[in-house]
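re: the backbone from monday

yeah here it is again, tokenized this time
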């Protein structure tokens, strides 16, 4: 976005000759246009082009909230100048994930005397620096910070603690066992805790969940309305969160309306947590709920909890049956129009009347799903992934047909086997000869059906009659779609070595492939797409349709498509990428992927691309092609490749990229490393949390958190 100064000063002869003069638009229209320009560009560049823009760029609507969290071109000098020019006009400042800015940059925030909301997640802030900054921000009410090793609450000044005592919203990411600033925040109404503490130090020593000496002060929860805790894998995180919960178990806040704990794996219930849940059942009415699976499985908790106007439920990985879901959560099928977000990921029996004698792959009970759809008609976010939701042969009761009634859906996650067109497979069941081999051994030649590449021909074949095609046609405003194999697991988990073997796809998913992918191209407003473990991808032709039709696509994640011994969709992917002008994030996970000159030449057409991640067991790369790609795509600030190349090749390429482009791209983060190397976990721990959480690690993100949990 640019305003050429010479044209404006000289009378905009070119615009006048075309009958359009930008400066003749009303102030309201110009302000709307300018709202899409990064604040740093507005203040430091655009406002210097002419007098009118100089005034408009300082309008309160543009300076009230400053978002730097994904302004990857901002540096320390720009932040310093920005705070000097408009610091007093800033009321909300978001610097989340600005990992590349030096620590001293935070000092300039003290110029923002009127700050009400401040987000410094992902920025390294010491205790002394935090104390100095907060001492000057007397109007602050919302704060997000990281608590790193070495944090010492005793170094906080009395003025800093006075500011913290007025903070009502706190988001705290913990990288060390600590209460952080929670005990100082005596007026807390919303508390978000992210536990990212590792079980082992870099030297290999076991860490303890005990708090640091001098942290005997307890949190103040009496005014708490929202409690949210998200735990990374590890026992230390569980130990520390129990210390935070101990205070809640003594006295449950009367105004608590959202209680959410997201914990992977097993997180056992204790006497203290049971007392907390019993107290909640007696004293509060909730609007949002998420609990570890061990706290729900086998208990009658849901029968006793009371709900007001719930907007978010997550029963991820719980053994909750559909009967319990309908009776205890959705009031026996009564209207629940307030519910906008529902996460049933990994809840394998949630669409069955009972779970006692049921196998996970048995057919679903369509009446349960129908009750859910009718009751929760305003759902905007629904996650049904990581389970086998197989529809029966009953006409009109297919999962896709029932979900098509949810006209307000914005994001949806489904297992691959759930979108299979039952009727088509009844007529022609899959045989051994037409299944795609999933092994790494010698590949068997199979007859490959020729898929036409244009959308009209695709539709003429069978798409318009399939239930998935109908579903995609009915969800016209869907922005996020995830189709993930029920047995899929990424080759690169969080704190463990890379997975060398993967489970085979569900038998009912074997026929899902190119035609289903082509159906997705109906989603005109699609912004984020994830496809994982689709066995019957033969050419990838559907990807081309998506590239042509889904012009708003910003995030694309593809994993284990087609046969595992060969990247059968490479040609179609390269054709697709030539049309993805808005694509910002691309993640590819596929064994034997060849990141060569042709691939990077096609990827260079994605002029908006910022982040690239490739995970490929036995994959190869061409260093010259990578360097050329980085030189051509000036917006790329993250390049993560975990391949089959040697450590020497990876290190040399990583060093070359950093040496060549770091100076012009301050946020550049490059990690190129052998996927199966024993030190992979040590390399991963140094990746900025923003990239690690948003793209590098594979996971389902639909309804992962309540909507608008933080700004």
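seq for it, each position gets an aa:
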């Amino acid at each position: 976005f640019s305003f050429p100064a010479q044209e404006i000063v000289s009378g905009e002869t070119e615009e006048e000759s075309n009958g359009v003069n930008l400066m003749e638009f009303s102030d309201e229209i110009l302000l709307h246009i300018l709202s899409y320009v990064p604040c740093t560009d507005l203040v430091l560049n655009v406002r210097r082009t002419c007098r009118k823009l100089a005034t408009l760029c300082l309008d309160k609507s543009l300076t009230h909230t400053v978002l730097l969290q994904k302004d990857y071109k901002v540096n320390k000098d720009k932040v310093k100048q920005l705070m000097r020019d408009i610091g007093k006009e800033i009321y909300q400042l978001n610097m989340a994930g600005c990992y590349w800015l030096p620590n001293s940059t935070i000092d300039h925030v003290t110029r923002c005397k009127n700050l009400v909301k401040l987000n410094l997640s992902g920025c390294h802030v010491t205790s002394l620096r935090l104390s100095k900054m907060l001492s000057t921000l007397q109007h602050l009410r919302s704060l997000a910070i990281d608590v790193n090793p070495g944090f010492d609450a005793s170094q906080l000044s009395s003025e800093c603690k006075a500011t913290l005592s007025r903070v009502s919203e706190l988001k705290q990411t913990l990288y060390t066992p600590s209460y952080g600033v929670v005990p100082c925040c005596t007026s807390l109404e919303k508390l978000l805790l992210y536990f990212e503490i590792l079980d082992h130090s870099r030297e290999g020593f076991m860490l303890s969940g005990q708090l640091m000496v001098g942290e005997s002060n307890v949190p103040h929860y009496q005014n708490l309305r929202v409690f949210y805790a998200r735990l990374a894998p590890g026992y230390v995180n569980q130990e520390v969160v129990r210390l935070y919960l101990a205070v809640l178990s003594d006295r449950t806040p009367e105004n608590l309306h959202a209680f959410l704990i997201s914990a992977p794996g097993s997180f056992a219930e204790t006497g203290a947590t049971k007392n907390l849940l019993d107290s909640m059942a007696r004293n509060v009415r909730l609007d949002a709920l998420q609990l570890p699976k061990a706290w729900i499985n086998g208990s009658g908790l849901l029968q006793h909890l009371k709900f007001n106007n719930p907007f978010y439920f997550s029963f991820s990985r719980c053994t909750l049956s559909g009967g319990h879901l309908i009776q205890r959560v959705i009031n026996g099928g009564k209207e629940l129009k307030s519910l906008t977000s529902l996460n049933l990921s990994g809840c394998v029996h949630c669409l069955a009347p009972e779970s006692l004698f049921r196998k996970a792959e048995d057919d679903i009970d369509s009446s349960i799903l129908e009750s859910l759809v009718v009751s929760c008609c305003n759902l905007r976010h629904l996650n049904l992934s990581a389970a086998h939701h197989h529809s029966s042969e009953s006409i009109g009761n297919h999962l896709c047909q029932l979900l098509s009634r949810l006209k307000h859906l914005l994001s949806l996650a489904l297992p691959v086997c759930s979108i299979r067109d039952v009727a088509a497979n009844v007529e022609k069941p899959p045989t051994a000869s037409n299944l795609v081999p999933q092994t790494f051994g010698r590949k068997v030649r199979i007859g490959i059906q020729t898929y036409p590449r244009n959308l009209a021909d695709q539709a003429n074949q069978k798409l318009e009659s399939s239930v998935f095609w109908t579903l995609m046609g009915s969800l016209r405003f869907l922005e996020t779609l995830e189709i993930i194999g029920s047995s899929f697991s990424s080759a690169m988990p969080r704190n463990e070595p890379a997975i060398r073997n993967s489970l085979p796809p569900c038998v009912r998913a074997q026929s899902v492939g190119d035609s289903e992918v082509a159906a997705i191209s109906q989603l005109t407003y699609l912004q984020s797409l994830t496809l994982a473990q689709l066995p019957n991808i033969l050419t990838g032709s559907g990807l081309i349709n998506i590239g042509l039709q889904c012009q708003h696509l910003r995030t694309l994640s593809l994993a284990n498509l087609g046969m595992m011994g060969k990247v059968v969709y490479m040609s179609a992917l390269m054709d697709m990428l030539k049309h993805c002008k808005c694509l910002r994030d691309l993640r590819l996970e596929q064994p034997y992927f060849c990141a060569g000159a042709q691939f990077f030449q096609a990827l260079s057409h994605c002029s908006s691309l910022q982040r690239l991640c490739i995970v490929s067991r036995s994959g190869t790369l061409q260093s010259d092609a990578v360097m050329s790609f980085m030189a051509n795509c000036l917006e790329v600030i993250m390049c993560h490749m975990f391949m089959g190349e040697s450590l020497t090749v990876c290190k040399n390429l990583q060093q070359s990229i950093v040496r060549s482009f770091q100076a012009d791209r301050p946020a550049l983060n490059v990690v190129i490393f052998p996927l199966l190397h024993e030190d992979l976990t040590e390399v991963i721990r140094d990746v900025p949390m923003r990239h690690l959480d948003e793209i590098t690690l594979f996971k389902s993100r639909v309804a992962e958190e309540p909507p608008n949990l933080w700004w």
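The longest helix spans residues 235-250. The CA atoms of residues 316 and 345 lie 5 Å apart.
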